[in-house]
Every structure is written in C-alpha cells, then in structure tokens.
Specification:
The protein is of the alpha/beta class and 402 residues long. It has helices spanning 44-54, 61-82, 107-112, 140-147, 157-161, 171-178, 220-229, 241-244, 250-256, 277-288, 294-316, 334-343, 362-376, 383-386; strands at residues 2-9, 16-24, 31-40, 91-102, 133-137, 151-153, 185-190, 193-199, 211-217, 323-327, 348-351, 396-398. It is globular, with a radius of gyration of 21 Å.
C-alpha cells in the first residue's frame, strides 16, 4: 500500500485538483482509495497571468522561469495542505499546468503545408514530421524540494518523443479502474477540453481494443463566454442555469462542426490553441448574424460541446457504448448533462462517482496512479490512444535532495 498525491490544473485553469490516495496492486488488481480531495484556487493574479500566456501573451525567459516557479510553489502548497488532516504521502505525481500544446502534424496536413522532407534514402518518400510539443509549468524538482517528497512530473514528454500526442494520458488508468466485465463504456471527461476513453468489456484482448482521443471543446468556450458577458465577475455557468434560459441556434452548431479538427481521425489531441480566445471571438462575431443574446449563445455553445462529443462517437467509435460515465467540471453542468442524454436516448449517462471513482478528482487520481506505475516501471500510456510507437513509463523522477 502506497500513499500518493496527484496534482493537476487543466485547461480551464480553475484551480489545482489535489487528490490524496492509497494505492495497492499493480494493473489487473489495481485498487485506489481516495482519502481526501480538494480543488485549491490559484491566486487571482497568477490565474490571470496563466490565462494571458495561454492566449498567446509574450514572456521573457526570466518571466517564464518566474511563472514556472510560481506555479510549482502553488502545487507544493496544495500537496502540503491535503496532508494536514490525513496520512502523509510517499510520492507525488504532478501533471502541472499546460500552457501550450501542439500535436504532431498528420501526414496529409504536413503535405498540404509543404512540410514534407525527404529521408536519408533518396528513393524514400517517407516524411520526417516534427514531433508534437507540450509545455506544462510547475516544475517537479521545485515541488520535491518544498514538500520533501519524491515527485514525478513531465508525464507527456516520453510519449511525445515516441511520436505520440502526449494526450490523453489517462486511458490506461481508466481501463484498470473503470472497465466493466459486460458493458461497453465511454469515460467522457469534460474539462476545458473534452476527451474520451472507450472501454470494451473486460474480456479477451480487451486492453488492445481500447481507444481514446480529445473530442473537442469542453468548458473552455463556455467559461470564456461567461467571463465576457459578466465583464470578469463570473468565471463559469453554474449548473448551466444561464444556458438553460437560451435558445439553441442549430445553424451555428452545424457551421462550427465544419472545423477540420472534428474530421481528423484519432489519435488526436487539442487545446486552447484551437478552442480558446480567438475561437470564442469568432463564435461571438458569427452569433451576431443570428441576433443571439448572451443566454442564446451560452445555450448554443453548450450544445456545441454536446454535438461535438456525439459527432466524435458516430465517426470514430467501433460501436456506440451502453454507458457514458462523465467526469471533470462539465459533469456538474446539469444542463449539459441533460442535453447529452437527450441526444443519446438509448445510452445511460452516469458519472464516474456512480461506479466508485470521484468525477471531480479522477484526473488527479490518474496522475497519482501514473506516478505510482512510474516507480514500479509499469508503462502508463496506451499507444493506440496517443499514437506513440511503444508503451512507455511516463514522467521524470525528482528526489527531494535539499
């Protein structure tokens, strides 16, 4: 039995999800007990700085280093706070704060952009495509020194170095915690960006048949809209109550679903670089043609998240699931959940809480497990999900030397 802390702040930048868990077993016999979970908000100035960087704001190298340390300090404080009334941890797994994510370029897109480069063999037409790039701030070595606890971070880099997307990384954890012996399940995480893991029944070569990818926007566009319409006084639409008052504009949803990302087959990942500030500004301009009020636009953006999830299921899943298990902040948006159920009448829409895994802290739990596996030398990625060339142990180990 090992006590581990998992830390992550997602693309919504709404706080640091912190989970203190006890882990036993390895893979088939993996068991995780959540001892305590909290979401600690960033100081306002730090959150605003992170969001500005995510919007493409420029930084000097000195400012980047300061921001990296400032985020790490907040993560370390969270790790200390979660242990105050509970058991002390032996290990920390920290995903950090994503501020930039660039997936590897698909071959057909590389050719379209004129990026094909000949290989060493002059007779080969193999393209040498640039690897993906993903930057998470909040360096693990700082967390380790402040907490005195061995910390594992930089979980995406090994997968990316092997040609993968570096995301989604939680599918292998989903498999061992949430697969059913009889049901076809989709684990649908709705954070700032939405992603899924499809889990066939736990029979035969079930692990090889798992698939997963980012489906598109989750809460990011909704949060940007709320921030815009309230002039920054609110950051999200609680329970989807504001969106519920609006009218959905189907014409806009069909227009937005023409975005190239939705037509690219998996493996694939995305982030604020696509579904962020500029995209929201485009949505806002396009909504003026239809004379939408704020509630109408929120209703339409909510339906866009739902429609993009469903479109992804129909295009790329081997079959529709019997159950969809929601997690992440979007699982608490009652209106979004109702709209998803309305569009998937024959599928049971549940939350991961209903099958024993906290929906609020599932991602933090997953990075605790990935850190635990890293210590045991167990691979953390699923190549068919990320596109990596091999299953690999994930994360850099930072012992507390000071």
């Amino acid at each position: 039995m090992t006590c581990v802390i998992g830390l992550i702040s997602g693309t919504s930048v709404d706080g640091i999800d912190t989970a203190l868990v006890e882990i036993t077993g390895t893979e088939d016999d993996l068991k995780v007990e959540l001892l305590s979970g909290e979401t600690y908000p960033y100081p306002t100035h730090l959150r605003e700085q992170i969001l500005e960087v995510c919007r493409g704001g420029s930084l000097s190298m000195a400012q980047l280093a300061e921001l990296d340390d400032a985020i790490a300090i907040q993560f370390a404080l969270c790790a200390q706070a979660i242990q105050k009334d509970g058991k002390g941890a032996a290990l920390i797994g920290s995903h950090g704060q994503t501020v930039y994510h660039r997936p590897p370029l698909a071959p057909h897109l590389a050719r379209d952009k004129g990026q094909e480069v000949r290989g060493e063999n002059a007779h080969s037409s193999t393209s040498h495509l640039p690897l993906g790039y993903s930057l998470q701030l909040g360096r693990g070595e700082t967390i380790a020194q402040i907490t005195g606890i061995q910390t594992i971070s930089n979980f995406r880099v090994a997968d990316i170095a092997a040609g993968g997307e570096g995301a989604p990384l939680v599918s292998r954890v989903d498999a061992y915690l949430l697969a059913s012996p009889t049901q076809h399940r989709c684990i649908q995480n709705i954070g700032g960006i939405s992603n899924l893991t499809y889990l066939p029944p736990r029979q035969g070569n079930w692990l090889e048949r798992i698939c997963g990818w980012d489906t598109g926007p989750g809460n990011t566009l909704l949060d940007l809209a709320v921030h815009h319409f309230t002039h920054g006084s609110q950051t999200y639409d609680r329970d989807g109550a504001w969106a519920r008052q609006g009218q959905i504009c189907d014409e806009l949803i069909q227009l937005w679903l023409e975005e190239d990302f939705f037509h690219i087959p998996p493996p694939k990942s995305t982030g604020r670089e696509l579904f962020g500030w500029d995209y929201f500004q485009q949505c806002l301009v396009e909504s003026h043609v239809y004379h939408l009020n704020p509630a109408d636009l929120l209703a339409t953006l909510t339906e866009f998240t739902v429609a993009s999830i469903l479109e992804s299921y129909h295009r790329f899943l081997p079959q529709m699931p019997n159950e969809v298990l929601l997690c992440g902040g979007g699982s608490r948006n009652l209106y979004l959940k109702e709209r998803l159920q309305a569009r998937m009448e024959s599928v049971r829409i549940l939350t991961t809480d209903e099958v024993g895994v906290s929906g609020d802290f599932k991602e933090a739990i997953a990075f605790a497990v990935l850190a635990y596996w890293r210590n045991l030398g167990i691979p953390g990625n699923l190549p068919q999900v990320t596109g990596a060339k091999a299953a690999l142990t994930l994360g850099n180990i930072h012992p507390p030397f000071l």
